[in-house]
Design a protein that fits this description.
heterodimer; A: 117 residues; mainly beta; six-stranded mixed beta sheet; four-stranded antiparallel beta sheet; globular; B: 112 residues; 0% helix
C-alpha cells in the first residue's frame, strides 16, 4: 500500500524566513502529487499539484514544490513566509494510470507551520 | 457559487443510533470521496466514488456505508456508530480522481 511521510509534524519559523516542508512517499508506479493547506476550522484547499512534466511546480501564495523521482520526494518551499501562512499542510499522493487504485488518495499526517512575528 | 456542502456541521449522538451525513456538490463532478481527520493521523480515506453507482473502499471503510444514486450527492451512513468513530469528517469532489479536490467545511461527529 502507498504511504506518505511528512517528516516534521511541527515547523516554527520567523516571519520573512524561508521554509521547507518535507514529504516522502513510497510507490513503485507513477504518481500524482499534491499539497493541500488547512487553515484553522476550515476545510482543505489545494496549494499545488504535480501530474507530469516539469518537476518544479508553482502554486498559490508563493509556494512551490519540487518532484524528485529518484528520492520519491515532493518537498514544499517558500522563500519568505508571512504570518498568514500559519496553517497545517498536507502532502497527498495518488497512483496514476488505470487500475483499481486510481481513486485512492493517500495523505500524510500533516505539518503544522507556525510563523512568528 | 461552486461548493461542496455537508450537513450537519456538528453532531453528538449515542452508540448504536444510525445516522447519515449528507454531502452535495454543485459542480457536476464525477468523483467524490469521504475522509476522516484525526489528530496526528492526518486524513484517511473512507470511501470514494468514481461516478454514479460506482463506489469503492478507501483505507478505513469499516463501520461506514455510502451510496451514489445521483451525481451530486454522496451520503455517508453510520449504521451503528461507536465511540471510535468520533472524528472530523470531510467530503470532497473533483472532476476526475487526479484533479484538485474541493472540500466541504467538515462535520464534527461525537459518539458517546
Amino acid at each position: 500500500a502507498q504511504s506518505v511521510t511528512q517528516l516534521d509534524s511541527q515547523v516554527p519559523v520567523f516571519e520573512e524566513a524561508p521554509v521547507e516542508l518535507r514529504c516522502n512517499y513510497s510507490s513503485s508506479v507513477s504518481v500524482y502529487l499534491f499539497w493541500y493547506v488547512q487553515y484553522p476550522n476550515q476545510g482543505l484547499q489545494l496549494l499545488l499539484k504535480y501530474l507530469s512534466g516539469s518537476t518544479l511546480v508553482k502554486g498559490i501564495n508563493g509556494f512551490e514544490a519540487e518532484f524528485n523521482k529518484s528520492q520519491t520526494s515532493f518537498h514544499l518551499r517558500k522563500p519568505s513566509v508571512h504570518i498568514s501562512d500559519t496553517a497545517e499542510y498536507f502532502c497527498a499522493v495518488s497512483e496514476s494510470g488505470r487500475g483499481s487504485t486510481l481513486g485512492r488518495l493517500y495523505f500524510g499526517r500533516g505539518t503544522q507551520l507556525t510563523v512568528w512575528p | 457559487e461552486a461548493q461542496v456542502t455537508q450537513n450537519p456541521r456538528y453532531l453528538i449522538t449515542v452508540t448504536g443510533k444510525k445516522l447519515t451525513v449528507t454531502c452535495s456538490q454543485n459542480m457536476n463532478h464525477e468523483y467524490m470521496s469521504w475522509y476522516r481527520q484525526d489528530p496526528g493521523l492526518g486524513l484517511r480515506q473512507i470511501y470514494y466514488s468514481m461516478n454514479v453507482e460506482v463506489t469503492d473502499k478507501g483505507d478505513v471503510p469499516e463501520g461506514y456505508k455510502v451510496s451514489r444514486k445521483e451525481k451530486r450527492n454522496f451520503p455517508l451512513i453510520l449504521e451503528s456508530p461507536s465511540p471510535n468513530q468520533t472524528s472530523l469528517y470531510f467530503c470532497a469532489s473533483s472532476s476526475q480522481a487526479r484533479d484538485e479536490q474541493y472540500f466541504g467545511p467538515g462535520t464534527r461527529l461525537t459518539v458517546t
